[in-house]
Design brief:
By secondary structure, this protein is of the alpha/beta class. The chain has helices at residues 49-59, 83-91, 104-112, 123-126, 141-158, 163-191, 204-209, 218-225, 232-242, 257-268, 287-309, and strands at residues 42-48, 63-69, 94-97, 119-122, 195-198, 213-214, 247-251, 273-276. The relative contact order is 0.13.
Length: 312
């Protein structure tokens, strides 16, 4: 579970009332173009750039996309919304949020600017998840595929005349996503069962998809992910289990003194360290290229450990 997001005062002027969050996906009437005007651009807001990248590739030139959380130097857990973000959400035709408490700031902005025509996709609700569940859904390749299919369906509902174009781009995206997902499958075949450690639960879905044995104490990973100090006993357990790990995975965007200490300990013991990020980095990269580069780094680290064990 990730630490709660805090909304800054800049957006507070837009918050008239806090209502219940919209359902996972709400049907909306297609936006209409003004008389005599060309096709109207779809105004889309993605709370995070990992979902924004997928939406952008599916919507193509028919959309004006705003991805809110993109800063490579910022901790997404500490994001504070702005007046500009509030305006973008209020004016949007389509909003995609992660949900499960990961971006509750966006839930508040949506509640403060009700719009019957707006369609909202709450990924967590769509996947049947709830607050308290691990919210890092974009690290689960099966979930990514489900969300991409849902977005393509939603865009076609918003703009029926362009449905064929959305479907064509969806097929292209499926092909693009296939590269990193095939690499995950290759890791599963080659390294399935290898023991790995992680400082946060951001890696849990990917470890499971790759067939890796994530041995770090869940209470440790969840506490770090929530911005809390892990229980003393879980720190001791983490240190002991780290000695048996083939690789240590850590979140480069939420480094703390404790995670830095564990990273240094792993390096001192000759355990390969792989850094991953919560948001797409660099921000202008595609989702699939960003994810593939991280999977490659993991693959290389596992190869290195496997080579040592075989005496190579």
């Amino acid at each position: 579970m990730s630490r709660p997001r805090v909304m800054g005062g800049g957006a507070a002027v837009f918050l008239i009332a806090i209502a219940l969050f919209p359902a996972a996906c709400r049907r909306a009437a297609p936006p209409r173009a003004a008389a005599g005007a060309g096709p109207r651009m779809l105004r889309i807001v993605a709370a995070e750039n990992f979902w924004g990248s997928l939406v952008s590739q599916l919507a193509g030139p028919r959309a004006r996309l705003t991805s809110v959380i993109t800063d490579p130097n910022a901790d997404p857990h500490e994001y504070q919304s702005s007046a500009a973000t509030a305006r973008a959400v209020a004016d949007a035709d389509y909003v995609i949020v992660n949900g499960a408490g990961y971006d509750s700031w966006c839930s508040r902005l949506l509640a403060a600017s009700p719009a019957p025509r707006r369609m909202v996709l709450n990924v967590a609700e769509f996947l049947g998840k709830k607050p308290g569940d691990n919210p890092h859904f974009w690290y689960n390749p099966a979930y990514v595929n489900q969300v991409a299919a849902r977005v393509e369906h939603d865009l076609a509902a918003l703009d029926p005349p362009d449905a064929a174009s959305f479907q064509k781009r969806y097929r292209a995206l499926q092909t693009a996503l296939g590269q990193y997902q095939q690499r995950i499958a290759a890791i599963r075949r080659r390294f399935g069962g290898m023991k790995v450690a992680a400082t946060e639960d951001i890696f849990t879905y990917l470890a499971r998809a790759a067939g890796l044995d994530l041995i770090s104490p869940p209470v440790f990973m969840e506490a770090v992910g929530a911005g809390n100090e892990p229980p003393a006993q879980s720190i001791v357990q983490f240190e002991e289990q780290l000695k048996r790990a083939s690789v240590l995975v850590y979140n480069k965007q939420t480094v703390t003194p404790l995670t830095g200490q564990m990273k240094n300990r792993a390096q001192a013991d000759g355990i390969p360290v792989v850094g991953i990020t919560e948001t797409v980095q660099p921000p202008d990269a595609s989702f699939e290229d960003w994810m593939d580069s991280q999977i490659v780094a993991l693959q290389v680290a596992l190869e290195k450990t496997a080579g040592k064990r075989l005496g190579k």
